[in-house]
Design goal:
Layout: E1 23-30, E2 38-44, H1 48-59, E3 65-72, H2 84-88, H3 103-120
Antiparallel strand pairs: 1-2, 1-3
């Protein structure tokens, strides 16, 4: 026989205590299309529809919103401190910088298009 408190039960009229699975992250595009989508906060909800309704009431009350996204926090993959070295490696790849292709490659491309124009004449 179990003692008091060993039985796992819940009265139907008492709401359950929310846990981390009830947390949804909210992203919104404020001020019309063309603006960035930004993280605006978190809400708790029993399901995605209730979370979306709560986010709409909380975050779109004072400002026009053109997009509203909610996603369960548990579905996010977040980086850890150990990932810092992996994440910072991207800056060593010059071909990923906005100035790529290099001036040499642009000059070569320009020369090729000029020779194509000469052949066409």
């Amino acid at each position: 026989m179990g003692g008091i408190g060993t039985q796992q039960w819940r009265r139907p009229d008492v709401p359950r205590f929310p846990d981390e699975s009830d947390v949804f992250e909210v992203f919104a595009q404020m001020g019309g299309s063309g603006r960035p989508i930004q993280h605006v906060g978190s809400v708790r909800g029993a399901d995605p529809l209730l979370a979306w309704q709560a986010a709409k009431e909380i975050y779109t009350r004072r400002e026009d919103c053109s997009l509203l996204w909610v996603a369960p926090r548990s579905s996010f993959m977040m980086s850890e401190r150990e990932d810092l070295s992996v994440l910072s490696r991207g800056s060593s790849r010059r071909y990923r910088l906005p100035k790529y292709p290099s001036a040499h490659r642009r000059a070569r491309s320009k020369a090729e298009s000029a020779s194509d124009e000469v052949e066409a004449s």
